[in-house]
Amino acid sequence: MIRLIRSTGRYVRFSAEDAFRSDLVDLLTVFDAVVEAGVQRIGLPNTVGIATPRQVERLVALCTERYPQVGIEFHGHNDTGCAIANTVAALEGGADCLDVTVMGIGERNGIASLSGLIAQLYIHYPELLETYDLTQLALLDHFVSECLDLPIPFNMPITAPGAFAHRAGVHTKAVLKNPRSYEVLAPADFGLIRSIDVGSRFTGRYAVGHRAAALGLRLSNDEVCHLTQALRERAECGSLNQEEVDAFIHSWWEEGSVSRAECSGADIALREGNQEKGSVTWEP
Questions:
Q1: DSSP category for residue 96
Q2: Which fold has domain 2-112?
Q3: Catalytic hit among 171, 210, 226, 250
Q4: Per CATH, is 133-196 categorized as 3.40.50.11270?
């Protein structure tokens, strides 16, 4: 059959189902036969996600060495949460074809996700991404999400809604000073932007002060501390979005301005009264 298909000029691929639960001798015996018959690619599917990254790398490396004349494909399911790790291990073992899907969609827990693999390649093998427009990745995930009425998982690398969102005080302060402190992926390279969540009960002084400054308000350190505490107390009733945060900051500032003006007027009156008694000299 393989020779017949090859004779028509067709590309032939052979994949062994459930390769990582198969007896190794049986698996290689079958591969030997199909490679001799002329297949151009053999597939190693981790059909039920049972393999570990080390097992994947070893078997892929074995097949790469044993069959240097054919391509090696890996297909990894995510039943045990190792789909992306196993796919990277297959690459490092010599596989030249890696199966992924948008958002990891597939049987049961799915397979390796496109965005997950790209995140790994971006860090460890950036040369493999040089010909790709990475700004299309988020658009692709959103398109498929809308078509299937399936939300992008909250923990999806790169394209999840909170992939570049920072909330905890120590994180936001560090990221505002140096994004690389908590971002190993640059959001701009994917056409995305980072967000600083100021409206949660975990918000920190630095993030609040930074946002107030962005709104044109000049606050002292004490004022930033008081504003942060007030914002945290408000967020205990539920997180605020950016518009609500800005409205809260403006409202807090305006109320404080009135209080400051009243205190300033009372202080002036007191000083003037004391000046008349000759006890204090007030200089405006």
A1: S
A2: TIM Barrel (3.20.20)
A3: 171
A4: no
